[in-house]
Specification:
Helix content of chain B: 25-40%
Largest sheet of chain B: none
CATH topology of the largest domain in chain A: Amidase signature (AS) enzymes
Strand content of chain B: under 5%
CATH superfamily of the largest domain in chain A: Amidase signature (AS) domain
Strand content of chain A: 5-15%
Radius of gyration of chain B: 23 Å
Order of helices and strands of chain B: HHH
CATH class of one domain in chain B: Mainly Alpha
Number of strands of chain B: 0
Helix content of chain A: 25-40%
Radius of gyration of chain A: 21 Å
CATH architecture of the largest domain in chain A: Alpha-Beta Complex
CATH class of the largest domain in chain A: Alpha Beta
CATH topology of one domain in chain B: Histone, subunit A
Largest interface: A-B, 77 and 62 residues
Strand order of the largest sheet of chain A: 1-3-2-4-6-5-10-11-9-7-8
Oligomer: heterodimer
Distance between the termini of chain B: 36 Å
Number of domains of chain A: 3
Shape of chain A: globular
């Protein structure tokens, strides 16, 4: 029996399973025991898929017993954010409207993880339809930060970050539309990687904002994130926006030197609103990277102050369209007793969606409606071009850009839940990468005086995850 | 106040939401405060800036292609014979709220 789940990484799990010092089944059971013990107070899991997990674990253990070569994630217990569909395992998107939805197919990224040997323990709590920055918008229950139970784990992949931070899973899959992988990774002290738009198939990811949605890993180490990305990345015929580009060997790339790489630092990311402790930690991390031989180059991303308004128009417009599918006809919740079709639609959606989802559907519908389309949606699309051009200009001079992941460490439950705008501003340093489609990683870079984790964000060029992983790995090893 | 009660009712109607009175009042307030904030976009002159609907408009696209052909990675190798496998009828109906075994059932469409 594994004594200490906290010591396991993807690599060490695979080695232990291969050497038969533990089995995939024992590891999965150890995780379930820990979930049983810890998750009552954290709330990271919504559904456990024990049968599916143990079946897969047996398959891996048979391969190990037979001395067969093991896949890269052999025996690794993972959790899946509940916005990725899983065949035969309830998938809710954190919403009452899908509370009983048992999908008939698997998300490509989940299928690839399992083909890579991973054990899917269950489905992880999140803000409803991934809309939120604190996980307080889950229709089921909030998630608490394992580092301080009075604080939020971040969102929307709060369950994913908390599960990894609390050693209830060795790794997790999350999704990022405006920061939903990186910000919770930062709040919980784990690694969170958002790949380039198009690098990982979105097939089977419940759509929030299709031009901004990304799937990516949350892990304990940068190397684990590299292994996960390598496993889930690459062209998928089921997603026409997935890129038909070769997938590098990210793990091999980690070992390349970082000396001589040019790192951009943008003053717009160190402006008003940034907490002093976060600023000091991030500046210290930048100094560390400089000591490792990187050249620090000032860059400007002048349209950054316009990122949040742009994001909340683009994302809500797309969401209002995507969420029109929840009509109570084919698979989502249907309100009982409606006498007409129109009444059935309205009552099902009224009862099924939570407040934040309704707020965003309303804002998005308004921004797309006749008379407002040009002023809001089209305007935001144009500013999205400007924000992207900012990055194109900066990446003409540097290899990567370093910033804080979030302006503050984890805030308290309830602190921002009655003020939508304050909550939206929690994503101020992360939304730009989603809008521009570039990759970004958040890695731990110290703690506040109250022992709350702080995150360093490294942004990279389009399809250049290898460089940001390499920088993150070098920092992690040195820190 | 940009968004009036009448606007909230109109937009809710477009979005197929009914909303209670308190919900409408609250959403009206929220929409006004969010729209006040997003108005800062009007500070930027974007008259010569092309809109960006998605990332692949800018990356990885063969610009020589036109129309839907230009849409990034739009090939459909999942449809070699023009037909894509769909869910079996039975499986699709199993997860529906109401069916007669052949079709999805819904309340009557015509209101009078």
């Amino acid at each position: 029996m594994p004594a200490d789940l906290s010591s396991f990484t993807i690599e060490s799990v695979r080695a232990a399973v291969r050497q038969r010092t533990t089995t995939a089944a024992q590891l999965a059971e150890a995780c379930y025991a820990r979930i049983q013990k810890e998750d009552g107070q954290i709330g990271a899991f919504l559904t456990l898929s024990r049968e599916r997990a143990l079946e897969q674990a047996e398959r891996i253990d048979r391969m190990a017993a037979d001395g067969q070569p093991l896949p890269p994630l052999a025996g690794v217990p993972v959790g899946i954010k509940d916005v990725m569909v899983t065949r035969g395992v309830r998938t809710t998107a954190g919403s009452k409207i899908l509370a009983k939805y048992v999908p008939p197919y698997d998300c490509t990224a989940v299928a690839r993880l399992e083909a890579g040997g991973a054990i899917v323990l269950g489905k992880l709590n999140c803000d409803e339809f991934a809309m939120g920055s604190s996980n307080e918008n889950s229709a089921f229950h909030p998630v608490r930060n394992p580092r301080d139970l009075s604080r939020v784990p971040g969102g929307s992949s709060g369950g994913a970050a908390a599960a990894v931070a609390a050693d209830m899973a060795v790794a997790a899959l999350g999704s990022d539309t405006g920061g939903s992988i990186r910000q919770p990774a930062s709040f919980c002290g784990v690694v969170g990687l958002m790949p380039t738009y198009g690098r990982v198939s979105r097939y089977g990811l419940i759509a929030f904002a299709s031009s901004l949605d990304h799937i990516g890993p949350l892990t304990k180490t940068v190397k684990d994130a590299a292994i996960m990305l390598r496993t889930i990345a690459g062209r998928d015929p089921m997603d026409s926006t997935s890129a038909d580009l070769p997938v590098p060997d990210y793990v091999a790339e980690l070992e390349k030197p970082v000396r001589g790489l040019k790192l951009g630092v943008a003053k717009e990311y160190f402006a008003e609103g940034l907490d002093d402790e976060v600023r000091h930690a991030v500046e210290a991390a930048i100094d560390q990277l400089k000591k490792l031989g990187c050249e620090i180059v000032p860059v400007s991303l002048p349209h950054t102050p316009y990122a949040i308004p742009t994001y909340y128009l683009v994302a809500t417009a797309e969401a209002s369209s995507n969420l029109a599918r929840y009509d109570g006809v084919r698979y989502s919740y249907r309100a009982p007793g409606a006498r007409t079709l129109s009444e059935m639609y309205r009552r099902s959606r009224d009862e099924g969606f939570g407040t934040e989802v309704k707020r965003r559907i309303m804002l998005g519908t308004y921004a797309l409606s006749a008379g407002y389309y040009d002023a809001y949606y089209l305007k935001a699309q144009k500013v999205r071009t400007l924000l992207t051009q900012d990055f194109e200009a900066a990446f003409g001079k540097v290899d990567a850009i370093v910033t804080p992941t979030s302006p503050t460490a984890a805030f308290r439950l309830g602190e921002k839940s009655n003020d939508p705008l304050a909550m939206y501003l929690a994503d101020i340093y992360t939304v730009t990468a989603d809008l521009a489609g570039i990759p970004g990683i958040s890695i731990p870079c110290g703690e506040t005086k109250e022992k709350l984790p702080i995150g360093l964000q490294i942004l990279g060029k389009h399809f250049d995850e290898a460089t940001i992983l390499r920088l993150a790995h070098a920092y992690e090893q040195a820190a | 106040m940009k968004v009036t009660d009448k606007d909230v009712a109109y937009v809710a109607d477009l979005a197929n939401l009914e909303l209670t009175e308190p919900e409408r009042a609250g959403l009206g307030r929220d929409l006004n405060s969010i729209l006040d904030y997003v108005d800062r976009l009007s500070e930027l002159d974007t008259s010569d800036v092309p809109p960006m609907a998605q990332v692949s408009d800018r990356y990885g696209v063969d610009q020589s292609k036109q129309g839907s052909e230009r849409f990034a990675y739009a090939s459909r190798e999942d449809k070699p014979d023009g037909l894509r496998k769909s869910l079996p009828h039975k499986v699709a109906l199993e997860i529906a709220p109401d069916t007669d075994g052949t079709f999805f059932l819904v309340p009557k469409v015509i209101e009078r």
